[in-house]
Amino acid sequence: MSTTRQDLAIDPPLAPETLAVHPWATATGRPRAHRTLNAPLHLSTQWEGADLPQLAELFARDQDRGFYTRFGHPTIRLAEERLAVLEGAADALLFSSGMGAISTSLLAVLRAGDHVVAHQSIFAQTIQFLEHLAAAAGVTVDFVNAAEPDQVAAAMGPRTRLLYLETPSNPAIDIVDIEGLAAIARAHGARVFVDSTFAGPMIQHPLSLGADLVLHSASKSLAGHADVLGGGAAGAAPLIADIRRMRVLTGATLDPHAAWLLLRSMQTLPLRVRAQSDTAERVARQLEASLAVSHIRYPFLPSHPGHEVARRQMALGGGMLSFALHGGLASTRRFVDALRWIPLASSLGSVYTTLEVPEELDFAVEEIGERASSFALPPGLVRLSIGVESAADIQRDIQLGLDAVTECAGGLSSSAERE
Ligand SMILES: *Cc1c(COP(=O)(O)O)cnc(C)c1O
């Protein structure tokens, strides 16, 4: 028998940076076939069977090759395989948005009477959806500070089916210990879901730390160009199969064109994340050194309360940080008004450096202030998402903002005024 290239297993296996680029590659080789170098984009929502038995066969066993797009689709499938490879997961699914991934995954595993323990400071709409399940579906939810593992252990009970984490968290940049908390959950027979949007698969692998499911808003760094809305979930095959069945019912399917853009974007994910992390760490140190700053959270700053955990479970610090200024919201407004070019924008994780002030957005005030889980964000907290522009340009603009705050405060020249 002649040897083809597909028979030649690649040893050692290809690195994630390589697999992210090649839409067809697997860790051990590639299929030998005449095919497009780029992934094809199929725009038909339906596939023809040659006869009724073949159509039935596509429906029963081969939905990803093409049957009807809500069930599966070859371009979406390629992007799902990329995500699975990057997460080190047996299987992965993509969704119409991060909330599509989160809501569909929760609906797939929770039943009336089940109890959920969740970190208190997670994405606002995830909290809202958990509270909706509590009100409408007979699920009970306890929000605790999962940065303190004892609080999680104390909240676990006989009906606890799920521990829901998000790290680093949006917008507070809390870090929780995935491995330690997963051990607590396992001892109680509960699953662990981790929203890893702020880190992404180049920075942390929640599945290898004991999580059952890793969730993403693909709208953020996976897509990375502020032009795609999408979500992802990766984990073991049986759990993914359950979530996939629920996705057929919720209809939270990713658009195939968005899947194609996502495939293209994931090719540069390793490059973008390294550049963003480099610059973010510099900006974090700049902010920490400023007398105008009262609070700064970046996972790789030694002053972060979760710094040790972050160094253990994250390969890079990521592009997200949050900070507050002496003088609260009034100083934040002064800071923002002094910026020359950094845009104020709602989302994050893209090639653009952007910032947002959650307190200024109504939904955050309502849901972060008055819900079952009550915790305080520092007044005027700024969430900064670092892009891939020149680090010097970013730091210069940030410095203009900081200078506007110190000039106005005048007396802020003494370090004794720092908290
Ligand atoms: C943005 C975000 C989501 C929601 O994702 P969408 O794509 O906007 O639906 C969920 N979790 C985190 C941490 C996010 O930042």
For the structure shown, list the relevant keywords.
alpha/beta; single chain; binds pyridoxal-5'-phosphate; disordered N terminus; globular; four-stranded antiparallel beta sheet; disordered C terminus; 39% helix; Aspartate Aminotransferase, domain 1; 419 residues; Aspartate Aminotransferase, domain 2
Structural overview:
By secondary structure, the chain is an alpha/beta fold. The chain folds into two domains: 5-266, Aspartate Aminotransferase, domain 2, CATH 3.40.640.10; 269-408, Alpha-Beta Complex (Aspartate Aminotransferase, domain 1). Helix content is 39%, strand content 13%. The chain has 14 helices and eleven strands. It has helices spanning 16-21, 52-61, 74-87, 98-109, 124-136, 149-155, 178-187, 237-250, 256-267, 269-289, 307-313, 328-338, 362-369, 391-409; strands at 91-95, 115-119, 140-144, 160-166, 191-195, 213-217, 231-235, 293-297, 320-325, 354-356, 382-385. The strands form two sheets. Strands 1-7-6-5-4-2-3 form a seven-stranded mixed β-sheet, sandwiched between helices. It has a four-stranded antiparallel β-sheet with strand order 8-9-11-10. The termini are far apart. Residues 97-99, 123, 166, 170, 195, 197-198, 217, 219-220, 229, 231 line the site of pyridoxal-5'-phosphate.
